[in-house]
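Case study.
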Amino acid sequence: MTHQTTVAILGAGSMAEALIGGIAKTNGGKAPHITVLNANNRKRLNQLHAAYGVHAAQSYEEAVKGKDVIVLAIKPHNVQEVADSLVSLLDPQKQLVISVAAGIKLETLESWLPADTAVIRAMPNTSARVLASATTLSIGTYATEWQLAFAKTLFSSIGTVTVVDEQQMDAATGIAGSGPAYIYYVAEAMLNAAIAEGLSPAEARALINQTIGGAAKQLSNSSKSPKDLYKEIMSPNGTTEAAIAHLDHSSAQELFQQAIHQAVKRSAAIGASFERDPIHKHQ
Ligand SMILES: NC(=O)C1=CN([C@@H]2O[C@H](COP(=O)(O)OP(=O)(O)OC[C@H]3O[C@@H](n4cnc5c(N)ncnc54)[C@H](OP(=O)(O)O)[C@@H]3O)[C@@H](O)[C@H]2O)C=CC1
Ligand SMILES: O=C(O)[C@@H]1CCC=N1
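After joint prediction, the assembly is written out as follows.
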């Protein structure tokens, strides 16, 4: 019998559920090999148990003991306190820690965890829930190629995986970690516009879903640039030209690029604010 890799997820919020939901989908809807723990919200753990068959732990010890992989799916400002709680529980010879926390660097994570702990940094997105995450991974000092291969397999079950140098993680976070939000933001603008122009919310939602899904498919299937693709829709003096002219006049593209730059900068700033403190390094 082959050993089913056991996974503890610390944190039970949006990202944890996206991961659990995606992994469960690849396993007949249930993920009994996943144990989940949060801080206070027991009701939330019970919901996840009911929905996906995950085991809801009562303590860090119960959550992480004997697990092959521990995923930190908590906010960046909670990572150090959780790492502190794990120090006496982790076995660096056997266990891999994967952090999905935005910004927090591998070196910082390694300094908070027991010496020689294998750490991998991951940046998935909430499209994991529909097996369509665009995840980036960076490998820490002590993680083995085998552990990286395992992380690739884990995140491949919920979408695509790209291994990047850690220096590229802030950019990947601004583009792909936050990325779905930009599309939902545009969808919201389209929805509000559609309703203002007289469509019913249900009609509008259906049209917008199909339009965004179709455009995403075209982007994936075509070798044409995004510009070529929108130019194809623009008849001279037509409707699309009228809309794009208005967007260009308002520098909407520049605004979008600046917005993404803000996300990338924020990821770097989060990382810098938790920069490794040598006094706290565990030996
Ligand atoms: N949301 C996203 O799209 C993405 C998020 N990320 C990263 O994932 C991480 C989680 O984000 P997200 O899921 O959105 O956050 P949420 O706020 O939705 O969830 C945070 C979770 O952490 C739990 N928690 C807080 N403190 C502790 C603790 N000491 N021990 C155990 N659990 C704790 C909370 O429990 P309780 O409710 O009981 O307080 C809650 O379940 C962040 O670091 C973020 O940067 C990465 C990629 C995309
Ligand atoms: O907004 C955030 O901080 C998280 C990280 C990437 C996506 N959401």
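Observations recorded in class. The domain at 7-171 is CATH 3.40.50.720 (Rossmann fold). Residues 232 and 240 are 10 Å apart (CA to CA). We will return to this complex in the next lecture.
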